[in-house]
Amino acid sequence: MADREQPYDPYIPSGGQPQGGAGNGNHRTAALQAEIDSTVGIMRDNINKVSERGARLDSLQDKTDNLAQSAQGFRRGANRVRKQMWWKDMKMRMWLIVGIIVLLAIIIIPTVVATSKK
């Protein structure tokens, strides 16, 4: 096993053993790797937040669609009730007009008949 070659590491000089200055380089590499890992973690968190936001936006879109359908149904119902009330109002006006005509006929016909007999 001693004749087995070590894997290549660019921070270890070609002699195979790290020297005095190379240990400092490994420390810097470890610090950079830690910073990269931290950045990757932050990016993963951001991606998770964006996907959660997308899910919330989808839910909000569904709620908006349901509200729009409900509003359209309400509008149709309101129009139907408005037309029913208009017809009810018209019927009431017609009855009032017929009542007034009958009342005038009851008053006018006897006076015309009494006047023509004289």
TrEMBL record:
- State a GO cellular component annotated for this protein: membrane
Q: Name one Pfam family in it.
A: Synaptobrevin
SUPFAM superfamilies documented for this protein: SNARE fusion complex
Q: Could you tell me where this protein is found in the cell?
A: Endomembrane system
Arranged from A to Z, the UniProt key words for this protein are: Coiled coil, Membrane, Protein transport, Transmembrane, Transmembrane helix, Transport
> Mind telling me which InterPro entries this protein's record contains?
Synaptobrevin-like, Synaptobrevin/VAMP, V_SNARE_CC
**How is this protein positioned relative to the membrane?**
Single-pass type IV membrane protein
Which biological process terms from the Gene Ontology are attached to this UniProt entry? protein transport; vesicle-mediated transport
Top-level taxon: Eukaryota
Residues covered by the V-SNARE coiled-coil homology domain: 28-88
Q: Where is this region: Disordered?
A: 1-28
Transmembrane segments annotated in the record for this chain? 92-113
Per the record, the similarity remark reads:
Belongs to the synaptobrevin family.
UniProt protein name: Synaptobrevin
Organism taxonomic ancestry:
Eukaryota, Fungi, Dikarya, Ascomycota, Pezizomycotina
